[in-house]
Design goal:
Blueprint lengths: L20 E6 L5 E7 L2 H7 L17 H11 L4 E4 L2 E6 L2 E8 L8 E12 L4 H14 L4 E6 L5 E10 L6 H25 L4 E2 L10
Antiparallel strand pairs: 1-2, 3-4, 4-5, 5-6, 6-8, 6-9, 7-8
Helix pairs in contact: 2-4
Length: 211
């Protein structure tokens, strides 16, 4: 007698899953494994072997920035001195030094142009000087303006412009950064002369006088 195909006894074996199909646990009716379910896109992605990508190597700075700054200053026929790793020169009513700063990630050459106003203010003018700096910073992108006292208590007005020139700066980008740093700080110092006409010349004999 033929076996009952619909009974619980031995019957015909279930066909094997076709290619591209996976066995999935059918939790809707508790019947166990459900065959012939098509593989989802996520299943196919999981089945692929992982491909490891080599980490990107950081660009190494060329180390040419100090020499490029010298080339730019020489091209301007600027008079400057070498102070350690910095170059220092004077333009109009400001004194400027050019520094190469370390990049935290070691991937770029960073140039800072720092300008100091040639005049000083007595410490009694601190609030006025800070107000001047804050108003400038609120209205302009650069330079960053701030006030610093010297060892004798006289107040100096400073401007800083910092430029990330990438791993391989060229002379054109360095020239643009140098000119921007100088011109931006000179604009600050010109405005300061209008705001503080009684400021004293830096290094002048009258700095020793009591205000």
């Amino acid at each position: 007698m033929a076996a009952d195909q619909g009974g619980s006894g031995e019957g015909a074996a279930d066909p094997p899953p076709e290619e591209g199909q996976v066995l999935m646990n059918d939790r809707s009716d508790g019947a166990g494994l459900r065959q012939n379910a098509p593989a989802s896109q996520l299943d196919r992605l999981r089945a692929r072997p992982a491909v490891s990508q080599p980490p990107a190597l950081p660009a190494q700075p060329s180390g040419r920035l100090p020499q490029l700054v010298r080339e730019v200053l020489d091209g301007m026929a600027a008079v400057y001195d070498v102070d350690g790793d910095d170059l220092v020169g004077a333009w109009e009513n400001g004194i400027f030094d050019f520094s190469v700063l370390p990049d935290d990630e070691g991937r770029a050459e960073v140039l800072q142009v720092h300008g100091s106003w040639e005049r000083m203010l007595p410490d009694q003018r601190f609030k006025e000087a800070v107000l001047f700096a804050n108003e400038w910073n609120a209205e302009h992108v650069w330079p960053k303006v701030f006030v610093l006292p010297d060892d004798e208590g006289w107040l100096g007005l400073h401007g800083e412009f910092t430029a990330d020139l990438g791993a391989e700066p060229d002379v054109d980008r360095v020239e643009l950064a140098v000119n921007t740093g100088i011109i931006a700080s000179l604009a600050v110092f010109d405005a300061a002369e209008v705001t503080f006409p009684d400021a004293r010349l830096l290094g002048g004999d009258d700095l020793d006088e009591t205000e």
